[in-house]
Amino acid sequence: MAGNIAKVAGVEISTDHWIGGRRVTSSRKFADLSPIDGSHLADVAAGGKVEVDQAVAAARKAFPAWAALGPKGRLPILKRFAEGIRARANELAAVETMDNGSLLIGNVHRVVPRAAQNIEFFAEWALTLRGHSIDSPEVVNHVRYDPAGVAALITPWNAPLMLTTWKVGPALAAGNTVVVKPPEWAPLTCSLMADIAHAAGVPAGVLNVVQGIGEEAGDALVNHPDVDRISFTGSTDTAKIIGQAAARSITPMSAELGGKSPFIVCADADLDAAAQTVAAQYMNAGQVCLAGTRIMVEKSIEPGFLEKVRTAASHMVVGDPRDKDTRVGPLITKEHFERVAGFVERAKADGAVPLWGGSRANFGELYFQPTLFANVNPSLEIAQREVFGPVLTWQSFSDDDEVIELANNTKYGLAATLFSGNEARATAIASRVVAGTVWVNCFFVRDLAAPFGGSRDSGIGREGGTWSFDFYTDIKNISVRKGSFA
User: Fold this and answer.
1) Which of these, 397, 323, 410, 402, lies nearest to 367 by C-alpha position?
2) Beta carbons within 10 angstroms of residue 446's beta carbon
3) Is 167 part of any domain?
């Protein structure tokens, strides 16, 4: 492996960009630190306008040939790409854990396999997009899904490999070429992904990776005049900036953003299952946009259910994410730790009461205790804004109208979780909650064929199945007059 190399968890990783089928360095670097212990992992090439221009030009040059392959021609290449991810699952999992502090056991068994599935599923789904015909009195309308061009893909640090392949999969399967801007706080698995794609035979320029700071590389990418699609996963505030750039060039944009999701527990629910699922909201140290952070419990079961949750949460062990017994690892950076701690201190000052947690865990600098707040007025900041840490709030309700009002009382609408033993009641509540996804008696089930995305400030558009291809293609209608050909 040529160029600048770092060795992380025993794995050699290029710290240079991947542009046009080769490694490209930059004179400027940024430091990548592990949240586990603050250790220095790598000095990573910091790209900007020059590197973005090179990557977009390479993607534009590669686009005609890649698009011309069609879904069948792209399928074997993308399947090899997926197999390459599976073959290096342990390496990818170990690097991701060091880079963003996520649980190693989860990366090995769930995250990396899902990354491979993201590539393979969409490659196969693209075969179904043969278009269709609509018969009208005077014409026959032939609907086609044509590749859009160059897609800019910007991904977050809480699950960089999985969320990058969630975008790369449909974008490449649809016939587009891509420029990926990975998160500066956890860029390393995206670099490995580029190597795997190259080894699988993805042609030069089809997949490009430009590393760098969002305000530099990201800004140059979303403002580039030769980008045809922008897909972003991250914060609502950043999406507003990207949206302004997209509007200037009328570039279609998809955004999956933050959340402040309700977790509703009805008296008729399986309370043991509900309590275990509440505790699971602390996963990834709460750095999960779709987590149900606002716990809403029917008043008649409050005391008993709280004790069930307390017992379940007591097993959420804080520690080194490489340890198989750990359930809550570190927050990503010192800056983010201080942000989470600030939310907690302001909530205390506002009169909210921590039933447990509420401060740094006795393990390391970036580890925060799983926390649950009671005495939470719905108007408090802690009930309105996304914390993105292991912090939940507890509220109660008397009837379904009240819980719907509570659930919808934020600017977000990404997801909701609901536990009830009454199908009619569950269906009625789920239909009234403003959310892109409502999980009923389950959590975090994301079928790749189903739509996923947010309402309100939680996003624009949907990803998954045909919805992904609606975004990553130009849908064309060819209207042919009947009888106009001999």
Assistant:
1) 323
2) 13
3) yes
Contact of 236 with 213, CB cutoff 8 Å: no
Same-domain status, 275 and 231? no
Question: Are 307 and 175 in a shared domain?
Answer: no
Cα–Cα distances in angstroms (integers) from residue 92 to residues 13, 37, 147, 430, in the given order = 10, 19, 30, 37
Same domain assignment for residues 14 and 147? yes
User: What does the pLDDT look like over 20-49, one tens digit per residue?
Assistant: 999 999 999 999 999 999 999 999 999 999
pLDDT of 200 above 70: yes
CB atoms within 10 A of CB 22: 14
Cβ neighbours of residue 323 closer than 8 Å, sequence gap 6 or more: none
Question: Looking at the 3D structure of the chain, how many domains does it have?
Answer: 2
Does residue 231 sit in the same domain as residue 306? Answer: no
**Edge to edge, what strands does the sheet with 177-181 contain?**
22-24, 17-19, 207-209, 177-181, 150-154, 229-233, 253-256, 459-460
Give the integer Cα–Cα distance in Å for 312 and 297.
16
Residue 136 included in any domain: yes
Task: Specify the amino acid at residue 206.
Answer: V
- What lies within 8 Å, CB to CB, of 19 at 6+ separation is 51, 54, 55, 58, 208, 209, 210
Residues 41 and 75 in one domain: yes
**Residue 241 within a domain:** yes
Please tell me the predicted confidence (pLDDT) of residue 2.
64
Domain range for 290 is 262-440
The CATH number of the domain holding residue 36 is 3.40.605.10
Q: Note whether 163 and 244 are same-domain residues.
A: yes
The partner residues of 231 in beta bridges, in order of sequence, read: 153, 254
pLDDT of amino acid 129: 87
Is 365 part of any domain?
yes
Burial class (CB in 10 A: 0-12, 13-18, 19+), 364: middle
Question: What proportions of the chain, in percent to the nearest 5, are helix, strand and coil?
Answer: 40, 25, 35
Sorted by sequence, the CB contacts under 8 Å of residue 53 that are 6+ apart come out as: 220, 224
| CB atoms inside a 10 Å sphere around CB 215 | 12
Mean pLDDT, residues 48-54 = 97
Write out the two tokens for 374. 């009671």
Q: Looking at the structure, tell me whether residues 188 and 46 fall in a common domain.
A: yes
Instruction: Name the DSSP class of 111.
Output: I
Q: Could you give the residue numbers annotated as active site?
A: 256, 289
In sign, the C-alpha dihedral spanning 286, 35, 180, 239 is positive
Distinct helix (H) and strand (E) counts, the chain: 16, 22
Candidates 185, 151, 250, 206; CA nearest to 35 is 185
